Amino acid sequence: MTTASVLGSGDEPIALDSAVSLVAPAAPVRVPTQRRYLMCRPTHFTVRYAINPWMDPSQPVDTERAVAQWTELRDTYERLGHTVELIDPQPDLPDMVFAANAGTVIGGRVLGARFRSTERAPEAEFYRRWFVEHGYRDVIMPTRTNEAEGDLVWTGTVLLAGTGFRTDPAAHAEAQEALGVPVISLQLVDPRYYHLDVALFVLDDRAARPLVAYYPEAFSPGSRRVLQRLFPDAVIATEADAACLGLNAVSDGHHVVLPVEATNLAAQLADRGFDPIPVDISEIRKSGGGPKCCTMELRD
After folding, report:
1. Catalytic residue at 293?
2. What is the rounded average pLDDT of the residues 83-93?
3. Which DSSP category does 116 fall into?
4. Range of the domain at 260
5. In this structure, is residue 217 part of a structural domain?
6. Can you say how many angstroms the Cα of residue 109 is from the centroid of all Cα atoms in its chain?
7. 181 found inside a domain
8. Total tally of structural domains belonging to the chain
9. Which of 58, 184, 211, 294 lies at a CB distance of 3.0 to 4.6 Å from 203, suitable for a disulfide?
10. Annotated catalytic residue, options 40, 244, 293, 294
């Protein structure tokens, strides 16, 4: 066995096994997988009511700019090789753009949504019809308040289920029965992060051990311990990353589409071998949403 030597703190030579490298290990090679998404053009987008801390009806909203930002988001997915399906926007439903809140699809089974706010309640039926009209046979509508992928995050092995502000805790058991996957409940405690998908997202759902990113302060102490146990290698977001809804991101296992302001998070992801794709979603953020809120994944 060959050895090399370096100088120690006292200038004495220290023998090193030649197999030991002083170079930091390279980031893992990340492999993207093609995805299929459902989105809704924000034709009628505005902020005329407040159902979360981000919404202020007194502030002006530029619908044309929101449409342009959404279009760039859709085009980004398509440039990355993903398929984007569209549902028709409906007048008087300005938040219908947030498709992620309207359904959870795993293995071709669909669990629809039941919104907490009366303003958004009609969206659920339009999305249910879309699924039926597009050949989905297992479409189940919940009896409990359930804001779909807003609070139900599929990791590839378990379904993380948020509660605290929107989704009823009893909806977690209903999701397990409807989708046939194990569910782990997580308690949200900061009203700014009213949905699980603005506090946590999945980076890699195809690995033997899923990888996620999250903001610990959005969760109760017990839920933080659960996350630490489940995901010891998680990417931990800063307060600044969370505050621009940087965790409302979409990953295909390699490319991560996230708000342009989440610069520290983007740097962390690059260090882990991911390719951050920043997008400007600032106008749509006035309603408390980002890339993920606009994107329902169709896992057929």
Report:
1. yes
2. 98
3. S
4. 33-297
5. yes
6. 20
7. yes
8. 1
9. 211
10. 293
| Percentage helix, strand, coil for the chain under 3-state DSSP, each rounded to 5 | 30, 25, 45
**How does pLDDT run across 194-248, given as a tens digit for each residue?**
999 999 999 999 988 899 999 999 999 999 999 999 999 999 999 999 999 999 9
236-266 residue pLDDT tens: 999 999 999 999 999 999 999 999 999 999 9
Q: Is the dihedral of CA 210, 170, 122, 200 positive or negative?
A: negative
- 215: CB partners within 8 A, 6+ apart: 193, 199, 200, 236, 237, 238, 239, 241, 242, 247
pTM value?
A: 0.91
Give 203's Cβ-side CA count (13 Å radius): 27
| Residue 149 resides in a domain | yes
pLDDT for position 27: 81
Domain assignment present for 18: no
User: Residues 266-269: contacts with CB within 8 Å, 24+ apart?
Assistant: 268/213, 268/235, 269/203, 269/213, 269/235
CATH number at 119 reads 3.75.10.10
C-alpha to C-alpha distance for 123 and 44, rounded to whole angstroms: 13
Count CA atoms closer than 13 A to 189's CA, side-chain side: 11
For the CA atoms of 158, 159, 165, 168, the dihedral, rounded to the nearest 10 degrees, stands at -110
- Secondary structure letter of residue 191 according to DSSP: G
Catalytic residue among 195, 244, 255, 294: 195
Q: Confidence band (pLDDT; 50, 70, 90) for 91?
A: very high
Whole-number pLDDT of residue 12: 52
User: Would you state the pLDDT for residue 5?
Assistant: 44
